[in-house]
Amino acid sequence: MQNDEKEIRELVERWISASSAGDIETVLSLMTDDVVFLTPGRPPMVGKQAFEEASKAQSEQPFDMSGVSAVQEVQVQGDWAYMWTELSIVVTLKESGRSIRRNGHTLSILKKEGGKWLLARDANMLTVSPGAAEGE
């Protein structure tokens, strides 16, 4: 495995770990300032600041999150790379104990800035898994 691919796979692991720990600052450090997130049925979320604001709004309702991301492919072309993953996350609301599972694929574009790989664009195609709501 080439060094760039290894670094990108490590970025994915740090993202999942930091997200699970509620460490928004670390997650923010893994993306470009002009990052764009695409999700089904919602307008694009553009920019690191928009991600931070959305994360803070979500944290008003305490939850636990766990996730598994299986990187299927990484291709590097100079200072740009893309990857696609199979992603599964479980969000459990602390107040109600209700869990929601989302599964699907992501397609991500990364950019190397200052010698560090960062997420620049992300198309997240996760959907709620059948029977995914528990504890209702």
Structure description:
The structure is a single chain. The protein is α+β, with helices and mostly antiparallel strands. It has one domain: Nuclear Transport Factor 2, Chain: A (Roll). The chain contains three helices and seven strands, in the order ααββαβββββ. A hairpin with a 5-residue loop joins β4 and β5. The chain is globular. The N and C termini lie far apart (45 Å).
- Overall structural class, as computed from helix and strand content, comes to alpha+beta
Compute the gyration radius: what is it?
Answer: 15 Å
Shape: globular
CATH topology value: Nuclear Transport Factor 2, Chain: A
Low-confidence stretches: none
Report the end-to-end length measured between terminal Cα atoms. 45 Å
Number of domains: 1
Q: In DSSP terms, counting alpha (H) and pi (I) runs of 4 or more, how many helices?
A: 3
CATH architecture name = Roll
Strand/helix succession: HHEEHEEEEE
Portion in strands: over 45%
Q: What about the largest sheet? A: 7 strands, mixed
- Helical amount among residues, as a percent range? 25-40%
What does the average pLDDT come to? Answer: 93
How many strands?
7
CATH top level class name: Alpha Beta
